């Protein structure tokens, strides 16, 4: 009986079942993801449960559970002001950038002879670093030396307090964000527009459709997948808005343009309060997560 | 066994030779490079010759200047990043007078006591102005050495005041009256009567604290009790609001004005009177200035029948705890904080000296005639709250002051918020 025992099998990689092989090949990616996503997020959650101050490196971090979260949600007016500003910026600039970006994309898609100037104009705002955009527009809207007030003065209109009047400061920030982000929108939408077959339009025209009807019945429905993708990316970056208000107003006047990302930066980098800063970052992460889930639902709903 | 013995021999040999080699090196080619961090506002062009002088006196040492942000907060942000990551790249840093408590608590500044070469600390510090000598000792450790003093003053245009037969103002009431008179007479829409800082920056804290103190306010009392929601707080806000809206002598965009905006506007001839730190003087007298030879400086006015008060400013030299060249860095700091350094900065950057005898020095007075009046101001200037959590204190005050100046908050709402949030930080 003993000599009928099977020989020890030496398997080569080729003999692995497809599932095992697949798992093996996913391991490096999974490891990398753990390193750059799972570990930092886990660490963030961990730190957010402590009273952890980097400006007192010798003090032992105290475990305080969810105290930071409770304080932020129930007792910190600065947090709610920052959330309000962030939501307002998102609600204004995401649709704003979509409309402007769609217009730009349609323009760039027109059969001009020389399309490159339009496309270059599309790319330039996108290629400009955010902080530079903020600083440039800060000078545009400067009270004493700004271009905008100078132009207004030529039309006999008095100087406008762009940076002091909170609604104007907020409006200028939204304007710059829309200007800056609509080119990104336009590029994604332009790619979408180019996949729409020309013959659809030709057929519609034969049937006597107006350009307006073509836009509503062909362009928009065919472009929907691109629009949703662009909206997902744009919304998440809008929730994280930091650079432009930071460079333009520094959160002023009186905190009326301070976004959640700026408040996190202030808490973590200026105050070195890593515990509370981490809790605030977790809350922002949750907001981004909710927004993404909502969009994903919309996409899936579309497919069914 | 054999192997171990060989190893022990080698180790012993190395232990004996190594210190010798190290000792021999500095004399030969060993160069120590010290990296000094200063802000763009602290005149790197003026600092460089001082570093060159130190290099001449210490042939083994090379000094590099690293220039960072142009505001106290921007510099602090950069230093915070370097120091919390324990980066040894920076050896010496210039820190704002409001920072030593935080640097001491965080262990970022190397205590200088062991590097004084036998001189007792008390003897060393006796040379300096008392307020600045006190500010550098935290928890009985010498955290830094004074670099230069500063305070807020009132700058005025001598030509404009003379044109309307006005004397430099001693009270705020006079200041506002003068400004109204000049604006009415000049009828120039670009001219501002009284410029001050209201942007959300460090200097804006002083914009509030100065009239607050003058009206009898005291931010932090016994047992760290914060008292700001009172008549002095309301009066301080009302003064600036009236200057902008009722008397219309301060620009309507004061909530956007940062320290250097005031300097630029004054230098371009657009301001009759301005509240500013001492560094403006030297630049107002420079080639590019539109107001050269037409500038006067006086101690800040106060309210009728009130004590004068101003904000203490100034900067200090500290050695990073993470420096790898602490003895050399400490030597550089002592050189910079000594008579030569202080005098050089006084003459070339109009930085107020930290050594009292320099206020009588003929060379210094030739460059800055008004320093003669500045000594009593610097001696009596008051400190902003001293706490390791100063960045939070500063943010609470400046954001609220900025909100009131911009009109987004009522003085009462700002004072209520300041008192409750400050109390949380100061407890």
What does this structure look like?
The complex is a heterodimer of chains A (304) and B (427). Chain A has 304 residues and is mainly α. Chain A has a single domain, classed as MetI-like fold, CATH 1.10.3720. Helices cover 71% and strands 1% of the residues of chain A. Chain A is built from 12 helices and 2 strands; from the N terminus they run αββααααααααααα. Chain A has helices at 18-47, 67-75, 77-109, 116-127, 130-140, 147-154, 166-193, 198-206, 211-239, 243-248, 260-270, 274-303; strands at 50-51, 62-63. Chain A has a two-stranded antiparallel sheet with strand order 1-2. In chain A, α3 (77-109) runs antiparallel to α9 (211-239), α3 (77-109) packs across α11 and α7 (166-193) packs across α9 (211-239). The longest helix of chain A has 33 residues, at 77-109. The N and C termini of chain A lie far apart (60 Å). Chain B has helices at 2-27, 44-57, 72-84, 100-106, 121-126, 130-135, 158-163, 172-186, 202-214, 231-246, 259-267, 280-284, 326-336, 339-349, 362-367, 371-380, 390-406, 411-426; strands at residues 32-39, 61-68, 92-96, 137-138, 141-142, 145-151, 153-157, 192-195, 271-276, 295-299, 312-319. Chain B is of the alpha/beta class and 427 residues long. In chain B, α9 (202-214) crosses α10, α9 (202-214) packs across α17 (390-406) and α17 (390-406) runs antiparallel to α18 (411-426). In chain B, β4 and β5 form a beta hairpin. Helices cover 48% and strands 14% of the residues of chain B. Chain B has 2 domains: 33-143 and 313-380, 3-Layer(aba) Sandwich (D-Maltodextrin-Binding Protein, domain 2); 152-311 and 386-426, Periplasmic binding protein-like II (D-Maltodextrin-Binding Protein, domain 2, 3-Layer(aba) Sandwich), CATH 3.40.190. The chains are: A mainly alpha (304), B alpha/beta (427). The interface between A and B is medium-sized, with 26 and 39 residues.
Detail the topology: elements first, then pairings.
The complex is a heterodimer of chains A (304) and B (427).
Chain A: H1 18-47, E1 50-51, E2 62-63, H2 67-75, H3 77-109, H4 116-127, H5 130-140, H6 147-154, H7 166-193, H8 198-206, H9 211-239, H10 243-248, H11 260-270, H12 274-303
Antiparallel strand pairs in A: 1-2
Helix pairs in contact in A: 1-12, 3-7, 3-9, 3-11, 4-7, 5-7, 7-9, 9-12, 11-12
Chain B: H1 2-27, E1 32-39, H2 44-57, E2 61-68, H3 72-84, E3 92-96, H4 100-106, H5 121-126, H6 130-135, E4 137-138, E5 141-142, E6 145-151, E7 153-157, H7 158-163, H8 172-186, E8 192-195, H9 202-214, H10 231-246, H11 259-267, E9 271-276, H12 280-284, E10 295-299, E11 312-319, H13 326-336, H14 339-349, H15 362-367, H16 371-380, H17 390-406, H18 411-426
